[in-house]
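Ligand: zinc ion. Inputs:
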Amino acid sequence: MYPRLGIDIGGTGISAVVLDGAGIVRGRASVPTPAEHGGDAMVAACLQVATDAAGQSGLAPAAAGVGAAGIIDANGVVLAASDSFTGWEGYALGQKLREALAMPVQVGNDVAAFVLGEQQFGAGRGIENFFGIALGTGVGGGLVLNSLLHTGEHGAAAEIGHIPGFGKRHCTCGRVGHLETIAAGRSISARYAEETGNMHSTKAVAALAREGDEVAAALFERAGAGVARAALMISGILDISALVVGGGVASAWDLLLPAMESTLRASPPISGNPISILRSELGADAVAIGASRFISRHA
Ligand SMILES: [Zn+2]
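Predicted complex:
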């Protein structure tokens, strides 16, 4: 079913792409996420970006795939919500979007979408086994085994953001020391504010690090080292050699890479096979492009 829409409902923005039959992005649009205004406002924002992206492409999409934070059931109901959004838990997102967009819609988890996008069109192309890590507002993960997305017994496989051993800070989930407390965008921003008294976006903290701000640079080093330690755990358990890292924080790749590389060098896998940490190739489009793949998986 092409052309098709891919929509990314993110913590700060909602974006849409229109893909043609060759998987090429022909139209693209985004708006800020109306995170505090409830599910219907989110659906209205989706309709707006879908209309704008379709208009730009000059194509008439036949179906839509949507990636959103949280655990989402097969009917598109949000079972476990992201704490970023108001009125999200229990919201019948799939049904509301089908009505608003007047086309078949399949909704799934945003990190699963990111991984499926990178697998088909990005850094995961041709790699049978890899682990995707999305460093966004939070930290999410997705596991591809034998070229298939492995979602686990409860749909919670690869929840790498919420494993402990990364310090003593409280996580957004209420527990302590999770990877997310050092590697998520909002954590980097919050830690910088704690240490300096100045609140900046993650992007601004990255700019400060490049200008020689040592506090800012240390936060990205800690994030990079944390991601690499998570990679070592994953590789040790699954004997996987490739990780694809994306999300907004990955745009500070220059600041993350030295710590990732030195951490991997200090503790190579027992198999003797080095781990490759690959940068997402689809960047900000990864979730929207990958979400378009939900359609062929379920329709
Ligand atoms: Zn957590």
